[in-house]
Automatic annotation (TrEMBL):
Record-linked InterPro entries: AMP-bd_C, AMP-bd_C_sf, AMP-binding_CS, AMP-dep_synth/lig_dom, ANL_N_sf
Domain AMP-binding enzyme C-terminal, first and last residues per copy: 462-496
Similarity comment: family membership: Belongs to the ATP-dependent AMP-binding enzyme family.
Pfam families in alphabetical order: AMP-binding, AMP-binding_C
Transmembrane region(s): 243-265
PANTHER family assigned: 4-COUMARATE--COA LIGASE-LIKE 9, LONG-CHAIN-FATTY-ACID--COA LIGASE
Residue segments, region Disordered: 1-20
Keywords of this entry: Ligase, Membrane, Transmembrane, Transmembrane helix
Sequence ranges assigned to domain AMP-dependent synthetase/ligase in this UniProt record: 73-403
Domain of life assignment: Eukaryota
GO terms of molecular function: CoA-ligase activity
Protein name: 4-coumarate--CoA ligase
């Protein structure tokens, strides 16, 4: 699945760019205000694993003593030196014993464990495409993903393996003694002998979109995309090189996947949770003196509302970075000084971030564009790009953005690829956004989720944030509900201790994706079911 990078139009000279907000009035394009981040030449053979390891060896990280990651519930840990030895051994063993080749696809259905990061980096080193899936997916969901990615081999646990069909090279259980032996039976010398030359344009991973507005799509991410993301993201991350990062996001999701790669590249100590538990997370912050934690909006809300936070010492926390869905200003304000939002998506990786106290003050924003990223705000009605302060669909272009080519567009879905990219390689995100005059990006809502009320388009997120400003409401989701006069009216699902509001359906929990996005389609199906229509 190799492809050449899409041609990039030359950037206009800097005199046309508003230095305050990065907007070029000639091209109607927003440019990053960050210093340029220069990745390796794209023609240089290089896997993301090789790139990371070469950086680690040249850095000041003491790999023999620094903890790479710790599994909280099992109390297991590896130093960077041990992790690297296991990566070398596993990659060599998989090539020799299982005959894995460059551009083969490996389907991975495993919860977070000590072995998953080692497995990822070993496969990537061989040029094998990793395709991680949610271990809690239904059989039909897994079948759809397998049909898209066409894997040669699978990696699972004894609990998840029964969900899988047979594969040409079989299924390897990562919680078996046989897998453990693969981590130690080969040496660095064996790996050097079995070195695989990987092109940066090779597909490193097939990740699956959240499917909040349609069926899940397979998103191919190249080694070049990942390298460009890491290089661009470094200026906007936790500045302390010795920071301890607690990763609550699953490793099969783009957020967790990218944070894992970034943590390894920066030599951070990483704490993983096999399964999420809020109080266990608080205990981990206290025990490991966690300083940096990527989180989702529901988790931020729980941190604000829960009395458990008073039981534990959370003073080590220096930064919470939130992504996955918009967050209300009221909630963000409660984390002043320690909280920042960012924006990214499976097809583009990390897109925006905030750097420093001055930028953190823009609580409602998701930050400024990362290095090398370009953006447009396009009016969905006229198709014209608009300037600062005006709403429209966010379009993106840059080296970390998924490439719109036959071999690297959405896997097995040429129609979706054609709908998502324009002829110049711009990715249409489907998000309704605007930039302010200083280059800060604001997310309003998903375009496809806007409620068509008479002649108006109502963003559900704005109503949800209004509802959740009420301290008596724990969570809320707003969906379109059919109405003869208005076409659609906003209908709210509310998690609350009382039932005295009219146009509301009360529910035990709002269905959300692993990244915290509301799964509105599930609520719409519920709302339109025969039982509810009779009310």
């Amino acid at each position: 699945m190799a492809a050449k990078s899409p041609p990039q139009k030359p950037t206009k000279t800097s005199h046309a760019i508003n230095t305050g907000g990065g907007y070029c009035s000639e091209t109607k394009t927003f440019h990053s205000l960050r210093p340029p981040a220069i990745p390796p030449p794209p023609h240089q053979p290089l896997s993301i694993t090789q790139f990371i390891l070469s950086h680690l060896y040249s850095s000041t990280t003491p790999i023999t003593t620094t903890t790479f990651f710790t599994i909280l519930s099992a109390a297991q840990s590896l130093t960077y030196s041990q992790a690297i030895d296991q990566i070398y051994s596993l990659s060599s063993s998989l090539k020799i014993i299982y005959s894995l080749k460059r551009n083969d696809v490996a389907f991975i259905v495993c919860p977070s464990s000590l072995h998953v990061p080692i497995l990822y980096f070993s496969l990537l080193c061989l040029g094998v495409t990793v395709s991680p899936a949610n271990p809690f997916s239904s059989n039909s969901e897994l079948t759809h993903q397998i049909q898209l990615s066409k894997p040669k081999i699978a990696f699972a646990t004894s609990q998840t393996a029964p969900k899988l069909p047979s594969f040409p090279l079989g299924t390897i259980l990562i919680d078996s003694p046989e897998f453990t032996s693969l981590l130690t039976q080969s040496s660095k010398q064996d790996t050097a002998t079995n070195h695989v030359e990987v092109s940066q344009s090779d597909v490193a991973a097939i990740l699956y979109s959240s499917g909040t507005t349609g069926r899940v799509k397979g998103v191919p991410i190249t080694h070049r995309n990942l390298i460009a993301s890491v290089v661009a993201f470094r200026s906007g991350a936790e500045p302390n090189p010795h920071a301890v990062l607690l990763l609550t996001m699953p490793l099969f999701h783009v957020y967790g996947f990218f944070m894992l790669i970034n943590a390894f590249w920066r030599g951070k100590t990483l704490v993983l949770m096999e399964r999420f538990d809020f109080e266990q997370m608080l205990k981990a912050v206290e025990r490991y003196r966690v300083s940096f934690m990527p989180v989702s909006p529901p988790l931020i809300l729980t941190l604000v509302q829960s009395d458990l936070t008073n039981k534990y010492d959370l003073s080590s926390l220096r930064m919470l970075i939130c992504g996955g869905a918009p967050l209300s200003k009221e909630v963000a304000d409660k984390f002043k000084g320690k909280f920042t939002q960012g924006y990214g998506l499976t097809e583009a990786g990390a897109v925006t971030s905030m750097i420093g106290p001055e930028e953190y003050k823009h609580h409602a924003s998701v930050g400024r564009l990362l290095a090398n990223m370009q953006a447009k705000i396009v009016d969905p009605l006229t198709g014209e790009a608009v300037g600062p302060g005006k709403r429209g669909e966010l379009w993106l272009r840059g080296p970390s953005v998924m490439e719109a080519r036959v071999s690297t567009g959405y896997v097995g879905d040429e129609k979706a690829t054609a709908e998502t990219f324009d002829s110049e390689g711009w990715l249409k995100t489907g998000d309704l956004c605007f930039f302010d005059s200083e280059g800060f990006l604001y997310i309003v809502d998903r375009l496809k989720e806007l409620i068509k009320y008479k002649a108006y388009q109502v963003p559900p997120v704005e109503l949800e944030q209004l509802l959740m400003s009420n301290p008596e409401i724990a969570d809320a989701a707003v969906i379109p509900y059919p109405n003869k006069e208005a076409g659609q009216i906003p209908m709210a699902y509310v998690v609350a201790p009382y039932k005295k509001i009219r146009r509301v359906a009360f529910i035990n929990a709002i269905p959300r994706s692993p990244a915290g996005k509301i799964l509105r389609r599930e609520l719409i199906n519920h709302a339109l079911s025969a039982a509810l229509l009779k009310l």
